[in-house]
Write the structure tokens for this entry.
Amino acid sequence: MSTTPVSSAPAKTNSIGLQILDYRGSKSTLCAGCGHNAVAERLLEAFYEMGVQPERIMKISGIGCSSKSLAYFMSRSFSFNSVHGRMPSVATGALLANKTMRAIGVSGDGDTASIGMGQFVHLLRRNVPMIYILEDNGVYGLTKGQFSATADIGSKLKTGVVNDLPPIDVCALAIQMGATFVGRSFSGDKKQLSAMLKAAIAHKGTVLLDIISPCVTFNDHDGSTKSYKYMKEHDELVNETGFIASHEDIAVEYDPNTTVDVQLHDGSHLRLRKLHEDYTPTDKAGAVNMLMETHEKGEVLTGVFYVNTQELDFASRLNMVDDPLSTLSADRVRPSREVLAELMQAQS
Amino acid sequence: MVTSTLAVQSQPIADSLAHSKKIVNDFSIQIATVNGSGSQSANSILLRSIFNMGVPVSGKNLFPSNIAGMPTWFVIRVNRHGWVARKNEIDLLIAINLESVEEDIRTLPTGGSVIYDEAFNLTDLRSDLTYYPVPFDRLVAATGAEMKVRKLIKNMVYVGVAAQLLSIDLKGLESIVRKQFSKKTAVADLNWNAVQLGFDYAASTLTKQDPLVVEPMNATQGKIIIDGNAAAAMGALFAGVTVVGWYPITPSTSIVEDLIKYLKQYRVEKDGKASFAVVQAEDELAAIGMVLGAGWAGARSMTATSGPGISLMAEFAGLGYFAEIPGVIFDVQRTGPSTGLPTRTAQGDIRSIAGLSHGDTKHVLLLPGSVKECFEFGIQAFDLAEQLQTPIFVLLDLDLGMNNWMSEPFVYPEKPINRGKVLNAKQLEELGGFSRYKDVDGDGIAYRTIPGTDHPSAAYFTRGTGKNEKALYSERPEVYQDNMERLVRKFETAKTLVPKPILDGSGKQKIGIIAYGTSDCAVLESRDQLERESKIATDYLRVRAYPFTQEVDEFVARHETVYVVEQNRDGQLLNLLKIDLDPAYATKLHSITHYNGLPIDARSVTKAIASHEGANK
């Protein structure tokens, strides 16, 4: 039988000619339905859509289910699954070595809010130019379901144990500590998360995204405040997140009374349609207050809480040469014989 | 006005005392002051004034872990033979600190002498010493110095008194004072005036009764004086360090502080931009994390720390070993365990660092024994880190790092920078990809790529978990074991790359000595004492790296008895030798340890060896 070549439609590509396949990772070994899988999917889509070359990305993590997920997206990017709670320092070092790379850190609530708290706040304080994803499910998954420090008061484990300590609100903390782009989303909210991730890619400075990402195995039952069901019932959007990439037509009309427009570092625009009256995403104190208030109301506030495009990021602050330090030629890093002679003279 | 040095030398010396002869260029001066009183400049001026007369000197600062108000001592050893180890016996005490003076006086040997503040009224304490009372407050007031700087000026007065009594060349002294205070003429004048007042007072009022004299020699021409931390910082500078993550800790702090100074001066490019990044981290965990992150991403990265910092770095050290990431860690050892004696010296970290972290971790250690080696190994460490793709630890100690040492000037590195096995995009294209952990060359060292390498197969997954040759997660027994075996092969390769030990002696004696680092100066002097006093001839092997090279094995094999000299309680180097060498050699090894926080002295070593050898009872 003769075969007539079927002219398949040309594969869809992004602005740099790559297909979505070029952004895929290994097959996930996380539980089916794990929120982290959805986050990985949104991440790779966002980088694909933003046309970022995978080889220009460094993915860095600590230890835990979330940290493992580096393997499940963008295999063509450079990955470093380091030690528990220490992703911030590894990412900082890597970015200093090569400030021209983009860095994304993936962490969990245990990895960040408990063992990693020390490094976390110092990363925020430095405004290290990277995206910090916190996949937040309120429990330790790999050790089978102990509470983490983001678990809400009154949240119940499968075993019946009830959490009686207050949660750490990493978003409020991040705003106070100096992060310049802070938001919360839900792994189940594709639209919001995608827009937020793209805006994060366009931002230069520390982006902290606290993504509620339910643990289907240990924290998705009735009584849990980090379950899919709870999130669907209590997710309170502070704003509707829209993203207009720099190459898109930005002439889209918007009403300044109802929408906040933030121009990001690469020329793209973050459009936040107000859903809460008193909210301005550039007001640090207001953002922290709002988070505190919604806690008391039992709502889980999501959206972009705070954006600051004025603050200098850490790599810029260090005033390094334009080329990556990692590949500087020997003549730029080893001083001359005359320099040694001068130093020796001073010691004689 | 000022008495000439010649006139002083021609005075009859100490005829009233038992000393019938001059003691020329062979004594120790101890200056006892209060910390925070600014005596460091004065002490270093005194040291350099003797050095500039061509006489070998060493200076050791014995200081408290405190900012101001506690006793501190500076010991200058003057030795015409070039022995620079600490010597227990003090010949001349300069006593400025009332708090410590009684004990300082008590420890002096018979015949010692004391320059002291006349207000102390010490002469009743002992009758077998020579006393030189000095009215410091009156002399300081005579300089016209303002109240707030009088404490500092007092130090310059004792420099003048000591210079006169010891016949130190006054012209040379003046040039050193002026160099030290070259930024402000008025300050230089004030200090120099104080030195002169001290000198003149001694010349006119004190009668030289002790035998100590400095006479010009030719033994220091062309040499420099520097501390090991500054030398290590220079090494890092010339190694082309690009990223530094650090956390301040005594006694390592000045490595990075000096390095920052050098980097700002020599590594800022024409456009004002820096070819480096230095970050003061939140703790040592973050410091080493930054080093490994940067090393992974292709930088030449380093940190400097001391014992407590090393303990904190343990987990990352294991990651660096297992994930095979370059980085350089300078450890300036201090006395442990725990906080220990933070400002005192020891060699107590070598055993814990050799296997730092859990599991079967093994590290490569460089062990500089001089300031020159601090510089040279400082450079080599960065090459080795990238050649071996592993953290390299450079072990100094407080004595080497923070004290002043004479040295030949450092030599510019002739070898080009070696970045190890790195594949670029072109090579990846030709090879059609690569396997990150495959032992292609059989030396245990696999090829790596630098993040950002523009090729679709450049990326790999770095992890602290088990992995196969392609860097994919694996828990398979044979895969894990193969990888661990390859790391052993890499460690064997390291033996061929690290600095070889240095043999001193004919190599034919029955008795051998093994030591490393600052124990070297005590061992060299001790061998001379053993030979002269007890006719005990020895061979000496100075170890300069871990893993031990073939030469160490052969040295132990060739000798009947091997003394392992080191500055810790448990004989850590000896224990490493026992683990790594043929077990049959274990009984040959004898431990000689010195661990009181002070730098090791030759006499202790001599006594221990002579006694074990049955001599000198």
Observations:
- Residues 1-19 of chain B have pLDDT under 50 and may be disordered.
- The radius of gyration of chain B is 27 Å.
- Chain B touches chain A through 73 residues (CB under 8 Å).
